[in-house]
Amino acid sequence: MNSHLTNCNECVLLAADADSYSAFKDIYPRLGVSLDTVRILHTTEYIDELITSGKLSLALENDIKVALHDSCRLGRRSETFEPWEGSWIRVLNTMAVPDSPRPVRFGNHGNYETPRRLLSRIQGLELVELERNRQFAYCCGGGAGVKDAYPEMADMAALNCLREAESTGVDVLISGSACCQRNMTEAAQRHDVSGSVRGLFDVLSEAISERA
After folding, report:
1. What does the angle CA 135 – CA 137 – CA 142 come to, to the nearest 5 degrees?
2. DSSP structure class, residue 148
3. Distances (CA, A) of 62 to 25, 59, 106, 125, 156
4. What is the pLDDT along the chain (212 residues), one digit of tens a residue?
């Protein structure tokens, strides 16, 4: 990690995709790289700030009904890692337990609301919630090497997400993760699922108009 970045007091690190966002929020801190002085933003958060400041607006020409799939990397795995400075001790010379309270991460504080806020701001778009959403969303099966190592499992997971979206009657299932979009799109083609899968930024790029 570049020392200029770790020692910067006014730096903003803009992550363009869910995987890099998750890495900077969760993985690098686990490896001992401190990014406390860096403001880490996902592209959705940056766009949201531009809209809030009045620099952008969102609108679509045609009305659509969509659902948002919360991917693991943009959702659960984007929760900020909290370091623990305790140590492990052995009880009854067998079981290892922490000697002090240890932070437990349930994925409750991932980037869930910003994508929803952006979609809800698009004129002509109706956002419907899937039954399993936010930290309880079902994994798409396309990340972490699952698709390569266990293709049948990846296909089953994607189909689960697609059927869940199909049951809501939406026109489009939106994903903020490129690997989720690809895996669910391929599963939809294999299983002839109605509706389409689109990337969050594809929809936003169509809806964004710059204000003078």
Report:
1. 115
2. H
3. 36, 9, 38, 8, 32
4. 555 555 566 688 999 999 999 999 999 998 988 888 899 999 999 999 999 999 888 888 888 999 999 999 999 999 998 888 899 999 988 899 999 999 888 899 999 999 999 999 998 899 999 999 999 999 999 988 888 899 999 999 999 999 999 999 999 999 999 999 999 999 999 999 988 999 999 999 988 865 43
